[in-house]
Structure formats: structure tokens, C-alpha cells
Amino acid sequence: MSKELSYTIEEVSQLLKVSKLTIYDLVKKGEVPVFRVGRQMRIEARDLDHYIKNQKTAIAPVPVVELHLPQSKDSLNIVISGQDLVLDILGKHIEKKSTFKTLRSYTGSLNSLISMYNGVCDIVSLHMFDGDTGDYNLPYVKKILVGYPYILLNLLSRKAGFYVQKGNPLRINSWTDLNQEHVKIINREKGSGARILLDEHLRINNIPSKNINGYEHEETSHLSVASAVSSGQADVGVGIEKAAKIVGIDFVPLITERYDLIILKKPENEKLINTVNDILSSQQFQSEINSLGDYDISQTGSIIYETF
């Protein structure tokens, strides 16, 4: 087999100086072909070159032949956004039950919801806490998806809280414990559910973010935050329980967060909504999620909110 240079989605976004969601949108539309290695999508260098050349000649007075691979009329790429491994399982079930081909974007809740508003994502996972109502997700959805009909479905519930070093030597047990100069935090990126959870509780407790040691130090996943705490780069981080168990550090549970899925209700999404509904309600899917541990499936598949 000949050696062909290829790039990850992140590498292509850096090369073209655009967001990863822009690249996912190009892939979804079939403008840039991809292949998969396990969970990771890659783009061949020659296909990227073809796309760039096509854009360069797009304003030429002669017709331009599109050089991307044709997409089957019977299949459609959809983008599922979010980081939890359950979304990968959902994607596999969708592909088994339908002709949809799933692409994965590992972008945070708020940025993904905005991308859905802009027509990029098809299924967005959300875990955004609202400090004024104590509710998850719906207050944000109502403000951002103005003018769009949608359905909000529960995927699961899970514990969120603090990652701390073994034995919790600094006795970090509440949000106000972060407001100490000797406690160093590692944060999540703007737009992520964990970042919103932290910011909302700082607001509720009248703690300025400038008082939080390490607030500007960001990582982009639960695992990377947990790993930073494990290695001693920080004393505490905010995230979900499962990552703490994977890394082998202690976890201080603070809240049970509702992890939901949102899909726009438009004619071309009717089949997708029905497929996802069937999967979430199936015993097979729920048993598979339950076997992973640390997830509550008591509301899985229930409709949290729906517009008509």
C-alpha cells in the first residue's frame, strides 16, 4: 500500500485557519471526503489539495468540475456533537438502524448549540446548568434556537463535581472552597458545559473569576482536566465522575446533571428523530449504557421539551 499523507480534522482546521466545525460542515456536505481510523476521521492530503484548488478556480469564467467523492442518494452524513463516549455508541446504533452515516464533533455544548443554529450540527448533546432556574439546557435552548422548532430528549443523567488528588488533601468540597489563593484550578474551554457549571456557581456565590487561581488555564476535555489534576499541575478541576475513575483520582460529586440531545424539527429530520427516539427507548441501547456504570438511564428517551 502506497504511503499517503493524511490529516486529522483538527490539523486541517489549523492549516486552513478555520474552526473544526467548519471542516465538519464541509465533510457533512460531501465537499471534502474522509476515511476513518477507529473513532478518528482523517482527510487525505490530495483530497484537501483538490478542495483548495476548486475554491481557487471557483470565480473563473469556465465551469468548475467538483472533485469531491459523490454521496449516495440513500445515505446522508449527520454530525453528532459532544464528548461523552455514549455518543459514539449512539452513532453506531444510528448507522445500524438507518442509512445515516455519523460524523463526530467533540465541541462543547454552547458552541455546538450555536453551530446548530447556523446549520452545522444535526444532533447536539447538552449539559448546561442555569443558575437562575436550577434547570439544565432548556433555558439556553429557548434563547439560542429562537424561531426554530426542536425536540429535546434525555440521553442520560450523570454526576458532575470536582476532580481532586487522592485523599483530597486540600479538603475541597464546595464551590466557595475554590476562592482560596493556595488552591489552583484547571478550567475548561469557553462554551463547554463544565465551564458553564463553574461560571454559574461563581456567579451565584458572588466570587469574581479573577480570584480563582488558574482560572485562565484551560483544557478541552474531561480526561485532560482529570489528568492535569492527577499529575499535580492543578489541585482541582470540574468534570464528570467517569473521567476521575479512568485517571484514578478522587471525585467530589456536587450535582446530578441532565445530559440531553436536541434535534431540529424540520421535514428532512423526521426520519432522524424517529430513529433516535427508537434507539433511546430500546432495551438494547439502555442496557449497553447501563453496563458502562456511572450513568442514570431512568429518564433516557423521555421528551424534555418539544415545540410544534
Automatic annotation (TrEMBL):
Pfam families named among the record's database cross-references: HTH_17, PBP_like
Domain Helix-turn-helix: 7-55
Positions of the PBP domain: 94-280
GO molecular function list: DNA binding
Top-rank taxon, per record: Bacteria
NCBIfam families, alphabetized: excise
Protein name: Excisionase
Organism: Domibacillus epiphyticus
